[in-house]
UniProtKB/TrEMBL annotation:
This is DDE Tnp4 domain-containing protein. Its cofactor is a divalent metal cation. Coiled coil: none annotated. Keywords: Metal-binding. Residues 70-229 form the DDE Tnp4 domain. InterPro entries: HARBI1_dom (IPR027806), Transposase_HTH_dom (IPR027805). GO terms for molecular function: metal ion binding. The keyword Metal-binding applies. Residues 1-38 form the Transposase Helix-turn-helix domain.
Length: 238
C-alpha cells in the first residue's frame, strides 16, 4: 500500500491499528528484504535473448542491434533542512528538490539496469559515468538515448555505439535526413518513457518522497522496477 498508493505512516497506522513507528520499522525492514529477493528480476539478458524479443519497430535497418535504451528520471523529495543537501538535490529542470536515477531498458521495455540515486543537480552525463552502467556494456552493444547524453566517446572506448538525435550545433534548421533520424529515434525511445511511466505508477516515487525515506530510495526504486518487469512487455515481439 505504501509503494503503490503512497500512503502515509499515520494513515497505515490507523488502518491496521498499530503505531506509526511500527509502520516505519515494518516498511524499512521489508523494502530492504524485497530489494535483495527481487533484485534478480532487474538483469541484463544476453544479446540472443534481446534479439529474440526485439519489437518489429527495431528490426528496421540501423537499429536492430540496440540493446539498451537509457534515460534519467527525477523523483521529487521533501526539501532537506541541510543547506548543502538542499543545494545538491535542487533541480533547475523540475524547480524542486529531486533525486535522479539512471534507468536502462531492453527494446521490449524491461528494466535491465537501475542506478543508485543522485542529487537532482547532477547532470545526466555525470550520473551515467559515475554509475555502473558502463560495466554492463559489452563490445558491439548499441545504446539509444536522448541528445543530452553526450557519451559517444565513452562508449567508443568500450567498442559500443550510441544512437541519439542530431544536435543543432548552431544550425538554424535540421536537414531532411536529420529530421527523419530524429523522428525515428523518438519513435523508438518512447519505450523508455513508457517504462518510466510504469515505474511512476508507484505513487511513493511519483509524489514527493518524505525525507525520512531518503536513505531507502535505492531499495524502493529497485523493488518498483523489479515489479514492473513482471508486467507484459511494452513492445510486441511479433
Amino acid at each position: 500500500m505504501k509503494l503503490r498508493l503512497g500512503s502515509t505512516s499515520a494513515d497505515l497506522a490507523q488502518r491496521f491499528g498499530i503505531g506509526t513507528t511500527t509502520v516505519s520499522n515494518v516498511f524499512t525492514t521489508w523494502i530492504k528484504i524485497l530489494s535483495k529477493e527481487l533484485g534478480f528480476l532487474v538483469y541484463n539478458p544476453s544479446k540472443d535473448v534481446v534479439k529474440e524479443t526485439l519489437p518489429p519497430k527495431f528490426k528496421k535497418p540501423g537499429y536492430s542491434n540496440v540493446r539498451h535504451i537509457i534515460d534519467c528520471t527525477e523523483i521529487f523529495i521533501e526539501t532537506p533542512s541541510n543547506p548543502t543537501v538542499r543545494a545538491a538535490t535542487w533541480s533547475d529542470y523540475k524547480h524542486h528538490n529531486t533525486a535522479k536515477v539512471l534507468v536502462s531498458i531492453t527494446p521490449n521495455g524491461a528494466f535491465n539496469f537501475v542506478s543508485k540515486a543522485w542529487g537532482g543537480r547532477t547532470s545526466d552525463v555525470n550520473v551515467t559515468r559515475e554509475s555502473s552502467f558502463y560495466d554492463m556494456c559489452e563490445p558491439y552493444d548499441e545504446v539509444m538515448a536522448d541528445r543530452g547524453f553526450t557519451i559517444a566517446e565513452d562508449l567508443i572506448l568500450r567498442h559500443c555505439k550510441l544512437h541519439i538525435p542530431p544536435g543543432r550545433r548552431g544550425k538554424e534548421q535540421f536537414s531532411k535526413a536529420e529530421v527523419n533520424k530524429t523522428k525515428k529515434i523518438a519513435n523508438l525511445r518512447i519505450y523508455v518513457e513508457q517504462a518510466i511511466s510504469r515505474l511512476k505508477t508507484f505513487r511513493l516515487i511519483k509524489n514527493e518522497l518524505p525525507i525520512s525515506l531518503l536513505n531507502n530510495i535505492d531499495a524502493i526504486v529497485l523493488v518498483c522496477a523489479a515489479l514492473c518487469n513482471l508486467y507484459s512487455p511494452l513492445g510486441k515481439t511479433k
